[in-house]
Design goal:
It holds the Pfam family RibD_C. One of its GO terms (biological process) is riboflavin biosynthetic process. One of its GO terms (molecular function) is 5-amino-6-(5-phosphoribosylamino)uracil reductase activity. The protein has about 200 residues and is α/β, with parallel strands linked by helices. It has one domain: Dihydrofolate Reductase, subunit A (3-Layer(aba) Sandwich), CATH 3.40.430. The protein has four helices and eleven strands. The strands form two sheets. A nine-stranded mixed β-sheet has the order 5-6-4-3-7-1-8-11-10, with helices on both faces. The protein has a two-stranded antiparallel sheet with strand order 2-9. The protein is globular. It starts with a strand and ends with a strand. The protein binds the ligand Nc1c(N[C@@H]2O[C@H](COP(=O)(O)O)[C@@H](O)[C@H]2O)[nH]c(=O)[nH]c1=O. The site of the ligand Nc1c(N[C@@H]2O[C@H](COP(=O)(O)O)[C@@H](O)[C@H]2O)[nH]c(=O)[nH]c1=O has 13 residues, from helix 2 and helix 4.
Length: about 200
């Protein structure tokens, strides 16, 4: 079935990235603590392995915000091809929301970054068409996920809730008035609680 997914690691106080994101600190201050469960922490267990399979399952196309694609703000004044090296883990078209036009960037392994300047709805509909029934994933970051939640397009939302308080940073639920999901699967490790939610409304 073609459906739209979104999988985010989040702090207990609701932040998906810390403050002051930069080239040196892509997830913001202490943001990396949210991702210990899949970034080699020895306390990771079988639950984290299963959740990582959810995260890495192949999808037909992706939507992401420009701040997730890279640290450049304003004009594209330097060569940048994403955080992920020559072969990004997407292996599908990725539609990047930005206010600054850019030619598509084709990477190894089937990933092409397309830059969309006409808003979330346009990016999502281009991704749906490109996915051709294989499903769209909303890859992040916070602003893009918030727009997807507000638009009501996410069928399956997975949150990895880390027992971490960040205090400040980027939130996904600000301005989203109704949650509209119910939990269908919960797994946990010492590093996080993985909750898979399905849309109810
Ligand atoms: N272009 C666009 C969005 N772009 C978003 O605005 C932020 C600043 O990007 P930029 O100005 O490219 O540096 C970043 O989060 C990017 O994803 N957002 C939207 O809702 N609608 C749009 O049409």
């Amino acid at each position: 079935m073609s459906e739209t997914t979104c999988h985010m690691s989040i702090s207990l106080d609701g932040f998906v990235a810390g403050p002051d994101q930069s080239a040196e600190d892509p997830l913001g201050k202490r943001g990396q603590e949210l991702h210990a469960w899949h970034l080699g922490d020895p306390r990771a267990n079988e639950a984290d392995k299963i959740a990582n399979e959810w995260l890495m399952r192949p999808r037909g196309a992706y939507v992401m915000g420009r701040n997730m694609f890279g640290p450049i703000r304003g004009d594209w004044d330097e060569e940048w091809r994403g955080w992920w090296g020559a072969e990004p883990p997407y292996h599908a078209p990725v539609f990047v929301l930005t206010h600054h036009p850019h030619d598509p960037i084709q990477m190894d392994g089937g990933t092409t970054f397309h830059f969309i300047t006409t808003g979330f709805d346009a990016a999502y509909s281009a991704a749906s068409e490109a996915a051709g029934g294989s499903g769209v994933d909303i890859a992040g970051g916070a602003l893009t996920v918030r727009q997807a939640l507000t638009a009501g397009v996410i069928d399956e939302l997975t949150l990895d809730i880390a027992p971490v308080l960040l205090g400040s940073g980027e939130r996904i639920f600000d301005g989203v008035e109704t949650f509209g999901f119910e939990p269908v699967e919960v797994l946990h490790s010492p590093l996080t609680t993985h909750i898979r939610y399905r849309r109810t409304t």
